[in-house]
Specification:
InterPro entries: PepSY-ass_TM (IPR005625). This is PepSY-associated TM helix domain-containing protein. The chain crosses the membrane at residues 12-36, 140-162, 192-212, 341-362. The chain is of the alpha+beta class. It is built from twelve helices and eight strands. An eight-stranded antiparallel β-sheet has the order 4-3-2-1-5-6-7-8, with helices on one face. Helix 8 packs across helix 10. The longest helix has 50 residues, at 336-385. The protein is elongated and about 110 Å long.
Amino acid sequence: MMTLFKKTILFIHRWLGFISGLVVFIVSITGCIFCFQDEIQDAIHSYRKVEVQNKPYIAPSILKAEALKGRKGATASYIYYYGIGRPAGVLVTDKKEGLLFVYQNPYTARITHTESPASNFFVVVEYIHLYLLLPANIGSMVVGISVIIFVVLMITGIVLWWPKRKSDRKRSFTIKWNGRWRRVNYDLHNVLGFYATSVAIILAITGLSIAFDWVREGIYATANLGKAHPEEKVVFKSDSLLNGKMDTTQVINKAYLAAKAGSPNAEMFLIYDDATKAGAVGITAYAQALHYYKSDSYTFDKYTGKLLNRTPHDQKSAGMKMNNMNYDIHVGQILGLPGKIIAFLVSLICASLPVTGFIVWLGKRKKSKSKKVKTVVHRRTVRQHLPAK
């Protein structure tokens, strides 16, 4: 007989599953699809690769000017150098066409491809994963709450699955493939759920870190063991009094060269040219292309090119390092290809859990109804055969 405790846990598990099941399925299946998006896009899109040339990359100001050519009133604040054998890119905001990503040859500035991020299949998948295609503030809240519920579901699922007797353990760890389909479905829900739980919770927490600032700050504080690092919270600004008094056309180039000299082994560079008066030029130098964990950060005055701050990876606090590696953990690439495979399989299992769980509930509901019908029929039969009073 099931104890009151387990009955309560089952009630919580069941109804939380009903509440979050559809969102968990959508978020998990899109996460599963997104895991290998870089590899798939590299295979099908030629513009994501360029021929390596034995010369330096062209200056960021030239890339920016080329991307904005013929686009009256357009602006561009983000410039990317994706690494050896990969293109450069400029994120353009155009009044007529909206947000555009312009791919360019980093050695010649020749435009090789222009696309709206919203037309890229994997960007759409990412938006569904993050926001369900709802407005960002609403969508992220719906997804975030559903993921929190999912974490509770994984924990309550382990409590329900946990075998009472040692003799049950072997059966609880394996799927009885030769059983009836309902038994196989039951095992798929319980056994796969057990094996996926530890990784699924990690994926869930890193996802919550993207959705909620308080989770990100919690990870930061926990990794730093509560120790404050106020120097990492300082926002550096340019001297706005110099606005209009300095020739700033070459500042972004100067800043890029300084960052490249400071991080000579970096493969990828992200340049952010803040358009506000006191905004600065921020440059992040990543150790490996398309990986975001190990990076050095630079901030420059947008009017003079003066270095305002440099934070190399090895001088960052444990909390900042944890936050920096969040994306790489979330998609599994922190462990390379094996990590991506693990993230893919666990996401696939997580997508299956609401489905198999619903089938388990449906089967028990039908069984319960069938039992009631049989009981009613039995009682009627008994009454019919009783002697009349």
